[in-house]
Design goal:
This protein has seven helices and six strands; from the N terminus they run αββαβββαβαααα. With about 180 residues, the chain is of the alpha+beta class.
Length: about 180
């Protein structure tokens, strides 16, 4: 029995370990399924032109990727010669060592990727001092005008759910903005 790139169903039942088969071209793992059956220990071999399924990205992974890209964007936005200043305490360091701090928590999707809500913060302010929310709010009002912090607070209370296409669109937008 000669075998090329495919074995028909009729041939599957007659193909056993006694038969020799030389494949004409190498197979990818997803193109061959080998199965041993009990009584006669014959090998069933199915070879086809199966293609790998295109992986669909989950919502969680897309949100995570968008968070990562958005964080880079925020940290690079005010960067001069790779140095940025912490929004709340004024510490200066490389943008790679700083973090993207949120005035209103990331749990609020309506302000999660809002550029006013997010500013560069050092690890000390963002993590160890829980974001210095009071100082953060005061500085927001100083930089962007009185009432900005209150507007962000009110906006964060609104329910918001992004579709997958909206998340992908945001991801593409912020990927084009980072270096």
């Amino acid at each position: 029995m000669s075998c090329g790139n495919s074995i028909t169903r009729r041939q599957e039942s007659t193909y056993s370990t006694r038969d020799k088969c030389v494949l004409q071209k190498p197979l990818i793992a997803s193109q061959a399924i080998i199965k041993l059956t009990a009584p006669h220990m014959s090998i069933l071999l199915y070879i086809s032109g199966m293609t790998k399924k295109k992986k669909t990205i989950t919502r969680g992974k897309l949100v995570s990727k968008l968070d990562s890209v958005f964080s880079k964007f925020i940290r690079q936005r005010d960067c001069q010669d790779d140095i940025v200043e912490c929004f709340t305490c004024g510490k200066k360091d490389s943008w790679k060592k700083m973090q993207c701090g949120h005035f209103r928590s990331r749990t609020h999707y309506s302000t999660r990727w809002n550029e006013l809500n997010c500013q560069v913060q050092c690890v000390g302010c963002n993590m160890f001092k829980q974001g210095e929310q009071y100082v953060f709010g005061m500085k927001l009002d100083q930089k962007y005008g009185e009432g900005t912090a209150n507007e962000l607070y009110m906006k964060s209370q609104m329910l918001s759910k992004y579709t997958m296409s909206e998340l992908k669109e945001k991801l593409e937008y912020y990927q084009s903005k980072i270096f």
